[in-house]
Write a structure and sequence with these properties.
inorganic pyrophosphatase (n-terminal core), Diaminopimelate Epimerase, Chain A, domain 1, alpha/beta, seven-stranded mixed β-sheet, about 325 residues
Amino acid sequence: MVVPEYIERYDRIAIVTHALADLDAAAGAAALALFAAKLGKRVEIVTPGGPTYAARSLLDSFSIRYREEAIDEDSEIDAVVLLDASSPARAGGWLEDFIRARGVPILIVDHHPAAEGWGDRALVDEAASSTSEILASELRGADMDREIACALSMGILADTRGLSTASCRTLGLYHYLCGICGKTPEELRMITHKPDDVSETLAKLKGLQRTRIVAIGDWMVAISTAASHQSSVAQALVQVGADMGAAVGRDEYGSAGSMRASRKFQSHTGIHLGRLAEEMARELGGSGGGHPATASFRVRSGPGTAVDSLLRLLGKSLNSNVRDIV
């Protein structure tokens, strides 16, 4: 198998997630770190920009140490594993510079299409529900223990909406992991359950007040400005009825945003929000990516330019003009 052989080959390994690591990325990082530790390897986990609240809770639950800043150029790293990202750009420009300057190998493990130029060092399975599913298949039988199985179970649960979108293959792997982990989906979910947060609630309420609603063909798209909790605001827009929701805010980089789509929008249009975010990043400079119905981006342009780019790309994808409603 590719992953076990890669881990066994090197002594000092950096496991890097995409910027703002989500549950799937964090679960994969935790599982690989635990597996590598059993082999006596030295591992450094990097979650650029820090993990989300749920991802942080997952890593903490397994006592996994991680760093949020770039690896030092003089760091003694033999190899890199990039998780849940199609190219080093998704982790920030520093990683591509580090790899090329040091000449270290990189293995990309992802369920999104690999970016051009990195495919010869990629383990990609677009049919997989998650990066955690790919790792579960790779590590199956390779001294899988309870903690590794529980971590990967949490990643699969996160990216299949609690198994509601899981394929038969995914369910088979989850059944295998569950037999080792021994915890129910609800018990695993509670590990990363986020208690009510007043600041998040306020961000969602304010986001709903600052919403621009447009029609693109027969679809209603809601876009809000939000300085924080953008993923929650985007999700709230979909929950109140928008076919697609986006929240964009200014940051020190330029602007950052999150997008969410309803199941109906995603299944009927076939639009992949992760690829849409990647296209925005190529156009405006920065990074972007994600899944068919959820994605994020950080670009070097202000929120207004980012929204204009998003709407133009959506209009092109839907072959329809953008009409303001509110």
